[in-house]
Amino acid sequence: MTTPKRDTYTPETLLTVAVRIFNERGYDGTSMEHLSKAAGISKSSIYHHVAGKEELLRRAVSRALDSLFAILEEPGAVRGRAVERVEYVTRRTVEVLMAELPYVTLLLRVRGNTTTERWAMERRREFDQRVSDLLKAAAADGDLRADMDIRLATRLLFGMVNSLVEWYRPHPGSGYDGDQVAEAVVRLAFDGLRTDS
Amino acid sequence: MTTPKRDTYTPETLLTVAVRIFNERGYDGTSMEHLSKAAGISKSSIYHHVAGKEELLRRAVSRALDSLFAILEEPGAVRGRAVERVEYVTRRTVEVLMAELPYVTLLLRVRGNTTTERWAMERRREFDQRVSDLLKAAAADGDLRADMDIRLATRLLFGMVNSLVEWYRPHPGSGYDGDQVAEAVVRLAFDGLRTDS
């Protein structure tokens, strides 16, 4: 038995618990009962902070999306040649994914059964589209291989970046630091594994 | 109400149904009842063909694993420079993934709660390790970038390849044919998106 705790949560600290449970059980598979048990407070205490689990989902995916979209406003993303900008955005996307791992994981697993989920998927596609537009601009500058379909390249690039949520863990001693991973993604995607010959 | 069909299944055709349901509901979330309903035959008819759902899982992931391991015995995987062999294996892995999409999807989603799942994960790691060994050999030949950690490169390469199960669909008009996707993966991974400058 879990002894109910006095409710010392804020909407933000409650969010940390909710995101963990959403990632463990899936959003659809999580009930208010599960959240109440995990937080150690009553359901009515949770309702004191938020309207329900969909509000927790919206706050969580907003945190991931806001961090991702903020990248696109950074100087490295708006100045210079398109190819440099898209490399910058790729590196920063990996960094945000690692820094906000539970939130981005949740965002990537959202499947579209509720209004909030569909909104999150739509925003995610918008972000991908912005990166795709940068890749297109880099191709138009002659800085990307002419034999590569840009929409396909965008999918493969995000496939590689997003796969990090499956294995990257930020604990010390997990093998890689964040900079090393971000650099490896950018080098693999833009320069390839082969030595230039 | 589904009208029960006469049982005209073989273990192989029953497998097609089971794999679809496992991928839709997750292996853990699938009961014999779900399989019986989806196949339109009674549970006892299913038990006539297989010992239970774990046997269906074993047959399904074996099909994916056998196809993947067979690649490593093909002439292109055993002759020539390591870098050519690993490019060959990458291309063929993408082709097998697309040809055996439901089976490889199931293999990649297996999470390790049963003996069969743990065995499948172990075999999958073995396959990844074989590719990693080829990458190491290519690096030793001086054919891969010296600044890339090979274990990390292996993870990123499989991250990109495996992400195909999330969006690639083999229907005509889905946008890409298999050869185009396989070629794009190999070019991106080994030569990168940038033009050589």
UniProtKB/TrEMBL annotation, chains A, B:
Keyword flag rRNA-binding: no
Domain HTH tetR-type, chain residue ranges per copy: 8-68
Gene Ontology molecular function: DNA-binding transcription factor activity; transcription cis-regulatory region binding
Keyword Transcription attached: yes
Keywords: DNA-binding, Transcription, Transcription regulation
Membrane-spanning ranges: none
InterPro entries, alphabetized: Homeodomain-like_sf, HTH-type_TetR-like_transc_reg, HTH_TetR, KstR2_TetR_C, Tet_transcr_reg_TetR-rel_C_sf
Lineage: superkingdom: Bacteria
Protein name as catalogued: TetR family transcriptional regulator
